[in-house]
Design a protein that fits this description.
395 residues; mainly beta; 4 helices; 51% strand; globular
């Protein structure tokens, strides 16, 4: 047995030695070429940046039900869709950026959540070197206001304010924008942005990625950083295409003006013995199309809307923060008591540089003429308070 093992080892050594005698030594040019190719590949990999975040959440809804059978019963509409005491993934984002050079980049941004996997953003950004004007073409955030484009991974409350979710669902659209940064007195940063968009957003359930009309929506924004205080103003001018209009006997398509104006401010301060804090406020007014599925009560085809949210965040400890918010939205100022207002408060614990834990309680209130938030068949506000525990991890 030992002799056989020795012979086998000897044969292997002989084969290896023999093959090496016939192998050709790589030339210096060949070796340099290989090293250059490896170096190029490494440099290209450095141009890629992968980032993202996960929002893992538990929600307890006061108006949720415990019997699944009731939730699917068509005879009891008040229980439909109320199975909302749950654990779930609210957002699972993955963003890939390729920065070819300081004047060109491309971004692809995906979301994986309870509703499936979707493309959130995909755009190309180019900067003209001399003027430093930046052009962006593709699918990206509407450049309106502060909260619409503020990342969900950084936002204090689990969801955006009601006006933001209603007027800018999905926060994104397809279009092109131009932006430029300026210095005022070598102290303050001024950013000007203007863009042209389809107008129906990425969550349009009727037309999807198709723009149903020739007209495009225009957005402009100016924001200035004064150090402890940031302020901004925004404007939105566009048209909404309505496939049918029930205000007339014959179902005919129509177009309705869509105009919005907004102002926002963020103030950073410091409280002795507690630490830093921030006060944020945003106000929006506009004209929106009326509900096309119902006959209009007047000849006006638009309704005047108002939105407001105020957020206070105050550090209680280097790792602990108190948050509160007032969220107000009036979908039609001509209709009394149809407004929505929600009061929220909570705590945010910063676990480390990448993760934080939120515990938030929100109390929504609906006016007696509101379209939602009322007990079925009554004008009484529904008990639909929400307790949310959320863990956010960024990478």
């Amino acid at each position: 047995m030992r002799n056989g093992l020795v012979c086998a080892v000897a044969i292997v050594i002989a084969l290896l030695t023999g093959s090496s005698s016939y192998a050709q030594e790589p030339s210096a040019d060949s070796l340099a070429g290989r090293l250059s190719a490896v170096e190029t590949a490494v440099q290209n990999l450095k141009k890629f940046k992968v980032s993202g975040y996960v929002q893992a959440r538990y929600e307890y809804h006061d108006d949720a039900i415990s019997n699944p059978a009731l939730g699917t019963a068509s005879t009891d509409s008040r229980n439909m869709g109320k199975l909302l005491n749950r654990f779930y993934i609210r957002r699972g984002r993955l963003k890939v950026t390729f920065q070819a050079n300081k004047n060109a980049s491309g971004v692809v941004y995906f979301d994986g959540s309870a509703s499936g996997v979707s493309l959130k953003e995909a755009f190309v950004a180019l900067t003209e070197p001399r003027s430093e004007v930046r052009f962006t073409l593709g699918q990206f955030n509407w450049p309106f206001g502060y909260e619409v484009s503020f990342s969900s991974s950084k936002r204090e409350f689990p969801e955006r304010a009601r006006w933001s979710r209603t007027l800018f669902p999905g926060e994104r659209d397809r279009g092109v924008k131009v932006e430029r940064a300026f210095k005022i007195e070598d102290r303050y940063d001024l950013n000007l942005t203007a863009g042209v968009f389809n107008g129906n957003g990425i969550e349009d359930r009727v037309f999807g990625a198709t723009d149903p009309n020739k007209s495009k929506d225009f957005i402009a924004r100016a924001a200035c950083d004064f150090g402890a205080l940031d302020v901004g103003v925004s404007g939105y001018w566009g048209e909404q295409f309505n496939p049918s209009d029930s205000a007339v006997p014959v179902q005919t398509p129509s177009s309705t003006d869509k105009i919005r104006y907004g102002a926002d401010a963020q103030f950073a301060f410091d409280v002795p013995r507690l630490g830093g804090g921030a006060l944020k406020a945003e106000f929006v007014v506009g004209q929106e199309p009326k509900n096309q599925s119902k006959a209009f009560l007047s000849s006006d085809t638009t309704r005047d809307v108002t939105g407001l949210d105020v957020v206070l965040a105050q550090n209680l400890h280097p790792n602990l923060q108190f948050i509160s918010r007032i969220d107000y939205y009036d979908p039609d100022r001509d209709i009394k008591s149809d407004e929505f207002v929600a009061y929220g408060l909570g705590l945010v614990y910063f676990w480390d540089n990448h993760s934080k834990v939120k515990l938030v309680y929100e109390i929504p209130k609906s006016g007696k003429n509101a379209r939602s938030g009322l007990e079925p068949g009554t004008t009484k506000d529904l008990k639909d308070n929400i307790l949310t525990m959320e863990w956010v991890y960024t990478f």
